[in-house]
Amino acid sequence: MTAVLPHAEQAAQSAGPQHTIQVRDVYKSFGSSHILNGLSLDFQDDAITTVLGPSGTGKSVLLKHIVGLLEPDAGEVRVFGTDIWGVSEEERFELRKRFGVLFQDGALFGSMNLYDNVAFPLRRHTDMPESDIREIVMSNMIEVGLEKAIHKAPNEISGGMRKRAGFARALVLKPDVVLFDEPDSGLDPVRTKLLSHLIQKVHAEHGGTYIVITHDIPTARTVSDYVAVIWKGKVVHYGDADGAFNSDNPFVRQFLAGAAEGPLGMD
Ligand SMILES: Nc1ncnc2c1ncn2[C@@H]1O[C@H](COP(=O)(O)OP(=O)(O)O)[C@@H](O)[C@H]1O
Ligand SMILES: [Mg+2]
């Protein structure tokens, strides 16, 4: 239902609190598979929100919508107050520069050492002199504990180190928004814990709107300020971490407890 409001009231509504990342009633299908089914979420600014949900439920598809790599069939994704598909390709490209993204595998360039990987966005998107680039790259490398590995190639280091290098690179343009797609995938529990703490530490120091996609409950417990649970292409719960972990929604309880009994079946 759309209410008809006097102009002044409409203006007052649209001047209300603006979230940096707003997903509005987004639908997305691939062929006959309906992946996002009216998904809406205003992510809390300047906080870490984890997006939890079973495998194959559309978490990565959601992330690709937020960064403007996939276009919704219906609905809208607003970033920094702009409809990301309502602007030109050039403008979308500019908006993307304000995101740091850590993809599942770190997505490092295999032919470059870690230093050049982390320097890459600065060389590509800025005209900074190499001396300034060096300062930023080294400070980020120290932050993630890789200052001694800058000359290594990605295939010479562990999966955990690759994630940290990917994180250092994601932060290099000082993004307002950082997105992580399953930062914990392929890591053992100890390295997962260390990476979770690193994400928290960096967020505490620099702030920003962080979105962490995961299906790992311990990661969510460690890093979350807010939790969104998605299932079958919709948000079934969104709220602060305490509320999520104490929810009485049977699906949320089952999923967050990893229990076999409950509404969540194998389908
Ligand atoms: N580009 C694509 N083309 C076709 N199907 C896709 C595409 N991207 C994702 N899918 C399908 O959408 C579903 C959700 O995928 P995904 O978002 O990657 O799940 P997850 O929640 O595990 O991240 C999967 O069934 C996947 O096969
Ligand atoms: Mg995924």
CATH class annotation of the largest domain: Alpha Beta
Query: Given the C-alpha coordinates, what overall shape results?
Result: globular
Q: What is the CATH superfamily label of the largest domain?
A: P-loop containing nucleotide triphosphate hydrolases
Give the distinct bound molecules: adenosine-5'-diphosphate, magnesium ion
Q: Compute the gyration radius: what is it? A: 19 Å
Description:
The structure is a single chain. The chain is an alpha/beta fold and 267 residues long. It folds into two domains: 32-78 and 177-261, Rossmann fold (3-Layer(aba) Sandwich), CATH 3.40.50; 99-175, no CATH class. Helices cover 37% and strands 23% of the residues. The protein has helices spanning 7-14, 59-66, 89-96, 114-125, 130-143, 159-170, 189-206, 217-223, 241-245, 250-257; strands at residues 21-30, 33-42, 48-52, 74-79, 82-83, 99-102, 177-181, 209-214, 226-231, 234-240. It has a six-stranded mixed beta sheet with strand order 6-7-8-3-9-10, sandwiched between helices. A four-stranded antiparallel beta sheet has the order 2-1-4-5, with helices on one face. The site of adenosine-5'-diphosphate has 11 residues, from β2 and α2.
